[in-house]
Specification:
Elements: E1 10-15, H1 22-35, E2 40-44, H2 50-57, H3 64-87, E3 91-95, H4 98-107, H5 112-119, E4 127-132, H6 135-145, H7 158-175, E5 180-184, H8 189-207
Parallel strand pairs: 1-3, 1-4, 2-3, 4-5
Helix pairs in contact: 1-8, 2-3, 4-5, 4-7
Length: 208
């Protein structure tokens, strides 16, 4: 793993399949940290930059290796926002990060080891939070949400397949020594956020 010591802040990635509640849990974690007086930056990938928008809305046009490289390029650019926040001692909570590439781009036919090589040089998370929920819950939430964000959410059986790829992504990161916290996301986001904040608090104490 890329060396993570020597920076004042922490990077926390919130991961999981579509419909699991990444955005709401990210917001809840950031809110709880802010209430405790912890300086925090909530962000997401793909980002809202032109490059990020291209990756977010280009999943029909770009596939496989092309999409994997595009997403990785956006992540390297994202460092221009993340690194200064870390340098100022903030906890950066990111909705999607490396594990999403290890799941979705692998699901798109790209070799997982190659995806890792693409992302090995980015800022590595101090903690990856893997949100999980049964496939039927994911499907129901996506149906309630309405608009589908990408081709990865279109097929009826995609929920079970995508969940499996995220589970494998979590194992892959653990095998490389990355801290991964699994959180059941069938509970309300405010409750799912609590074990995440507890883990962040422990990391901040160890970081000092």
């Amino acid at each position: 793993m890329t060396e993570r010591t020597g920076r004042p802040g922490l990077l926390v990635a919130v991961e999981g399949p579509g419909g699991v509640g990444k955005s709401t849990v990210t917001a809840a974690v950031a809110g709880l940290l802010a209430e405790q007086g912890v300086p925090v930056l909530a962000t997401r990938e793909p980002t809202d930059t032109p490059l990020g928008d291209l990756a977010r809305h280009g999943t029909d046009e770009y596939r496989g290796m092309a999409l994997a490289c595009l997403v990785a390029a956006g992540r390297y650019q994202h460092a221009e926002e993340i690194q200064p926040a870390l340098d100022r001692g903030k906890v950066v909570v990111c909705d999607r990060y490396i594990a999403s590439s290890l799941a979705l781009q692998c699901m798109d036919g790209v070799d997982r080891d190659f995806i890792w090589l693409l992302n090995e040089g980015v800022i590595q998370p101090d903690l990856t939070v893997m949100l999980t929920a049964p496939p039927e819950v994911l499907a129901e939430r996506l149906a309630t949400r309405g608009a589908l964000h990408s081709r990865f959410e279109v097929e009826d059986d995609t929920r079970l397949i995508e969940l499996g790829y995220f589970i494998e992504a979590g194992r892959y990161l653990r095998d490389r020594g990355a801290p991964v916290l699994a959180v059941e996301a069938t509970i309300p986001p405010s409750e799912a956020a609590r074990p995440v904040v507890a883990a962040i608090t422990r990391l901040m104490k160890d970081h000092r």
